[in-house]
């Protein structure tokens, strides 16, 4: 359904704004046009240090058995120099470059050339051509949703190889982990730089580009909203899902295979991490059409933050628990294993149900039941840059009545479960929960700032009705 139609599938309605509407003073929403000093300082910090942080974590596992403190002690006491650590670091190899090129090329092939067939036989699965949300310029993009299919094909080939064909070792990812890191960085920087150049010379939709005039901010946060090559190759959907999230479960499988090779068994903690993160990944692909309505796709522009983040940060740092367990094979007692499994499953349930409630509410325009009752909501309106006025609704019942981002709370419970599966000997596997807490709290604030610019007074009415962000009664 195109943007110019009267009634949108999300339940949003639109009308050309002919009078000066005092209810909706806000006309600018989406990524910022101006850069404040704090954002600029954070961006410079991340541009300089994020690649070093990834290297430090991976090197600590490779050279220091996952201790984050020992490398520092060695350096501070003069026991080792930076050059000693660097000289011990595996370099880029032709083999890793070959593996990585094949991997990315295969994912591009699956994304661009294999139309979705899963939606034809999987009841309830939404795949094939789907529409995204209205962009600030009033555009509605179409996407080919075929991530679940790509995930299934890739994993079927992985298992076929591991148990039948034996073309390569299932430990191949672990065995080439640092050489592959260099390849992922090359792709991450290449795609972010390409996206920046593209936005100046051949943007996909010039009206949805934002230039702040600050090179670093534009490089990091992106200029183009939805860069594409041709009609279907969408940078955001591809890079987040394919080299990022399809890889996540494969990387974990490779770690499990390495445990098997080294110790002759796979520990229950490794199984827990594989299963809980596997559920999260599968959920992502099962709900890929829903992902089109999330902040990543609806509001973030494509820059280094998404490009490099999807290629390097996500596959390397989201999988630290499995990597840690290769070096420290933790066998949990049954009660701890069950407790962690329950925490992970409850977190997943909260995360999924909260997201589902919003999706159902928006799809049916509020004509649905949430916890057996008609949902409560606040009517709101906003305008796109061409002055068209849209109407929408913000739900105030179900999990959305408990807190404004209860989906993040569920996500955090799940994240804590992955970390706890690794025991309490080292802090490295706890990086994920620390990072997710910062990411999601920052995201809350960012999203609320954006929603306020979008909905104005209506957003204030909503925050008065649902006063807490993540934890009812506390924050
Ligand atoms: P949400 O799915 O919470 O979407 C926020 C948007 O929903 C708002 O911008 C607003 O958009 C709309 N909205 C807000 N409140 C309401 C309401 N009460 N009723 C109806 N619509 C509302 O945020 P994200 O896109 O950030 O997250 C999606 C999921 O992805 C989350 O569960 C999160 O935990 C997960 N996530 C995971 C990450 C990871 O790295 N593992 C990273 C980021 C997210 P509109 O303009 O349409 O009104």
Automatic annotation (TrEMBL):
UniProt topology in membrane: Multi-pass membrane protein
Pfam families assigned: ERG4_ERG24
Any GO BP: cholesterol biosynthetic process
Cellular component aspect of the GO annotation: endoplasmic reticulum membrane
Transmembrane segments: 37-58, 92-114, 148-165, 177-197, 237-255, 262-282, 302-320, 332-351, 415-440
Presence of the UniProt keyword Cell division in the record: no
Region (Disordered): 1-25
Record-level Gene Ontology MF annotations: 7-dehydrocholesterol reductase activity
Keyword line: Cholesterol biosynthesis, Cholesterol metabolism, Endoplasmic reticulum, Lipid biosynthesis, Lipid metabolism, Membrane, NADP, Oxidoreductase, Steroid biosynthesis, Steroid metabolism, Sterol biosynthesis, Sterol metabolism, Transmembrane, Transmembrane helix
E.C. no: 1.3.1.21
Predominant location: endoplasmic reticulum
Gene3D superfamilies per record: 1.20.120.1630
Cellular compartments annotated: Endoplasmic reticulum membrane
Record keyword Ribonucleoprotein present: no
Family listed: Belongs to the ERG4/ERG24 family.
Chain's role: Catalyzes the last step of the cholesterol synthesis pathway, which transforms cholesta-5,7-dien-3beta-ol (7-dehydrocholesterol,7-DHC) into cholesterol by reducing the C7-C8 double bond of its sterol core. Can also metabolize cholesta-5,7,24-trien-3beta-ol (7-dehydrodemosterol, 7-DHD) to desmosterol, which is then metabolized by the Delta(24)-sterol reductase (DHCR24) to cholesterol.
PANTHER family xref list: 7-DEHYDROCHOLESTEROL REDUCTASE, DELTA(14)-STEROL REDUCTASE
Protein name, entry field: 7-dehydrocholesterol reductase
Source organism of the structure: Fregetta grallaria
